[in-house]
């Protein structure tokens, strides 16, 4: 009997030394093999470009001749350039106004989240702007703002050069960008609304909760993941705005509508300043990273 117990103890000790059973090792190996292709693709197409951009930002390079190391000269020039601060101010303006998309999308989602005849067609009409390419949206709103024949002229009775006036151009482009962004947030909230526990809502109504109280204390807490995704993706969309600016204004007039993403493109493609453009990209990446980390910390704390 003692011999048997000692044998079991020895085998248990060997298992502990190995750390895992053969079955667990096979499971971990299978999980690793499934994760490896995705991790490899992420490393090649995300991690490597980020690291190479950071390295390139310390060089002066035109894309053809050998690179020359300049240290922090690109960053020093960047913070001394007026266009950088104009682009940064416009990015902040984009961020502030773009954050209107999640609450408006939530309002549309609450309105469309009902079982009535024809609601699917209405949902499709609301979602249609999101599936349009950015170039198409830019062209549509360029015609809309045209002071000679645009629909805006017919609405207000006279033409306003929205895209030709430095005071209005950024607001006009942001309004055009909100047109597809609001339906995107609406779809996120509609998806979240389908997963809400109806029993909790009924119980809250029996306790007297209704209207804004029901929305604030019962529905919105269950929509926290959808809200997180809507805000993070909206902020990323605001900071990387490029296509509408390229189509509608080209950063003008007089660089008044440029943002960091377009400024980066402008320096790299037009002026062959790859290192300086990489420095702009690094600054934009750090701004995005800071916001995303802040939002993730808030989400983790709220879940805790």
From TrEMBL:
Residues 1-23 are annotated as: Disordered. Residues 1-10 have a biased composition (Polar residues). CDD domains: TM_PBP2. InterPro entries: MetI-like, MetI-like_sf, UgpAE/MalFG_permease. Residues 87-297 form the ABC transmembrane type-1 domain. Belongs to the binding-protein-dependent transport system permease family. This is Sugar ABC transporter permease. It comes from Paraburkholderia edwinii.
């Amino acid at each position: 009997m003692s011999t048997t117990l000692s044998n079991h103890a020895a085998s248990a000790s060997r298992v502990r030394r190995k750390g895992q059973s053969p079955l667990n090792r096979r499971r971990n190996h299978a999980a690793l093999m499934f994760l490896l292709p995705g991790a490899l693709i992420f490393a090649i197409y995300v991690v490597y470009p980020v690291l190479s951009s950071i390295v390139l930002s310390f060089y002066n390079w035109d894309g053809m001749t050998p690179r020359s190391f300049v240290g922090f000269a690109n960053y020093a020039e960047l913070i001394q350039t007026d266009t950088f601060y104009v682009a940064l101010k416009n990015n902040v303006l984009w961020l502030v106004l773009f954050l209107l998309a999640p609450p408006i999308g939530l309002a549309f989602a609450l309105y469309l989240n009902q079982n009535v005849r024809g609601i699917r067609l209405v949902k499709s009409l609301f979602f249609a702007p999101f599936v349009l390419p950015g170039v198409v949206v830019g062209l549509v709103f360029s015609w809309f703002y045209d002071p000679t024949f645009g629909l805006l002229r017919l609405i207000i009775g006279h033409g306003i050069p929205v895209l030709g006036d430095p005071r209005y151009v950024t607001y006009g482009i942001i309004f055009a960008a909100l047109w597809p962004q609001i339906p995107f947030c609406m779809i996120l909230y509609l998806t979240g609304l389908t997963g809400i526990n109806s029993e909790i809502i009924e119980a809250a109504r029996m306790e007297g909760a209704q209207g804004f109280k029901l929305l604030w204390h019962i529905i919105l807490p269950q929509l926290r993941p959808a809200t997180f995704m809507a805000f993070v993706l909206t902020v990323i969309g605001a900071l990387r705005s490029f296509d509408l600016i390229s189509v509608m204004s080209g950063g003008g007039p007089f660089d008044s509508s440029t943002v960091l993403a377009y400024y980066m493109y402008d320096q790299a493609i037009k002026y062959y300043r790859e290192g300086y453009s990489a420095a702009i990209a690094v600054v934009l990446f750090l701004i995005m990273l800071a916001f995303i980390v802040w939002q993730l910390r808030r989400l983790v704390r709220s879940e805790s």
